[in-house]
Design goal:
Radius of gyration: 20 Å
Shape: globular
Helix content: 40-55%
Order of helices and strands: HHEHHEHEEHHHEHHHEHHEEEEHEHHEEH
Largest sheet: 4 strands, antiparallel
Number of strands: 13
Strand order of the largest sheet: 5-6-9-10
């Protein structure tokens, strides 16, 4: 009996339907390749169906890793038409030494946490397949790339150099920095995302033109972090918080492999201290724009993700912000992606207000770690109800729960499955 035959739950059917043989696409129509942080979240759910398949999901992603350690945000499938997604492989002009075609930018480093949770799902299978021993040096190289090449502000924090690197592409936190970028001419590219999703749910053509120009500049400088004149460079609290969580996961992995966990624990402690010192203000974490050194005056879900950081010294204040008028945790559906009272709030447009399932999962994990059983339980119930009611939508309106974006979305199914069957 196959695992597909053994598990007929709705979430499992989404994951089986989006499985390609060695990885899972987020959505066959909108996102037909393998995405970096998507695969990490997907593996967290897949581990409940097949720990081996979850391991393969992550191992296939690691095949896209560059010699400098970076894990690109897209691993292009050779079986998908080259023009099915834009920007595609012909735009990025990037590949690994073994010929795997990829993008040139990265996404938030949640991978070590996913590896650790996948290992815990079936430790015997993990040992049998040498999963941790194979993943550990790749994760170390990935984190080393970030620490050594992306501390662009010199304060010990990692910077993103493109909105897509945040995973929260269209966040209002990027508006001021993006306004400095001259967009690529409208006729120089053809969007594919609006072929499969409503224009009102997606970034505007102007912003998309700016995304394309930023990526083209990085590409034309051969993705060299030292040589590229970055028009967009910000220290993002979500990216850094997930790096902290993954450093803690790497410490756990190192201990199992009889290696020294101390360097990872030290890196986590230093990142935590730097993040609190440099990015915390007015009860929330904010991105710092490295062009002027100022904190961005836009409160987004990225500023709440540090709730999952172990031993966060400002957790009480941050939780109060999450429950306050800006985000109304426990009052609206899941957790909105942007300040409900903010001037740029749009309940249906990509990362400018809608609630997302992956960020709700991260907040839930933080609430459990803080001993907030009541809030965590209510959020879990909300995630499970909305996932089922919306056919596993990509995201939802935070007031009405109306489905937005793609349906049968892989990380929505995976993380709902994890909350349904997991220990947290």
């Amino acid at each position: 009996m196959t695992i597909e035959e053994a598990d007929s739950s709705a979430a499992a059917r989404v994951l089986f339907g989006n499985w390609t043989g060695r990885s899972t696409v987020p959505s066959h129509s909108l996102y037909p390749h393998q995405w970096s942080w998507d695969s990490a979240f997907i593996a967290i759910g897949l581990r409940h169906l097949s720990p081996q398949r979850a391991q393969v999901e992550l191992e296939s992603l690691f095949e896209s890793q560059w010699a400098d350690g970076r894990i690109p945000h897209i691993n292009f499938s050779p079986s998908v038409p080259r023009d099915a997604y834009f920007p595609g492989p012909d735009f990025w002009q990037a590949s690994t030494p073994s010929g795997v075609e990829t993008s040139g930018i990265v996404q938030p480093p949640v991978h070590a946490l996913a590896v650790w949770l996948t290992h815990q799902a079936d430790e015997q299978e993990s040992v049998r397949r040498n999963f941790l021993a194979g993943a550990y040096p790749k994760l170390v190289a990935w984190h080393a790339y970030l620490h050594e090449h992306r501390d662009l502000g010199g304060r010990g924090l990692v910077a993103i150099v493109h909105p897509w690197e945040s995973g929260m592409d269209n966040s209002p936190a990027w508006d001021t920095a993006l306004a400095r970028v001259d967009p690529a001419p409208p006729g120089s590219f053809t969007r594919r995302d609006t072929d499969h999703a409503k224009d009102a749910d997606r970034p505007t053509d102007l912003d998309y033109g700016r995304y394309v120009q930023l990526a083209a500049t990085y590409r034309d400088h051969r993705y060299d972090d030292a040589a590229t004149p970055f028009a967009f460079a910000l220290e993002d609290p979500c990216f850094n918080a997930l790096l902290i969580a993954s450093e803690h996961a790497l410490a756990s992995i190192a201990a199992v492999l009889s290696l020294d966990p101390a360097p990872h624990l030290q890196a986590a402690a230093e990142l935590t201290a730097a993040m609190v010192k440099e990015l915390f203000a007015d009860g929330i974490f904010r991105s710092r724009d490295l062009a002027d050194g100022e904190l961005v005056a836009a409160d987004t879900i990225a500023g709440l993700i540090p709730l999952l950081v172990d031993g966060l010294p400002v957790a009480t204040e941050l939780l109060a912000t999450a429950r306050g008028p800006r985000f109304r945790l426990g009052e609206v559906r899941m957790v909105p992606s942007y300040d409900l009272t903010g001037p740029a709030f749009e309940p249906g447009r990509y990362w400018r207000g809608p609630s997302w399932f992956n960020t709700a999962w991260l907040i839930h994990r933080g609430l459990v770690g803080l001993g907030q059983a009541g809030l965590a339980g209510a959020l879990r119930t909300d995630v499970l109800e909305l996932a089922a009611a919306t056919d596993f939508a990509e995201y939802v309106d935070p007031y009405t729960g109306e489905a937005r974006g793609a349906r049968n979305f892989s990380w929505t199914a995976a993380l709902a499955l994890d909350l349904e069957r997991g220990q947290l």
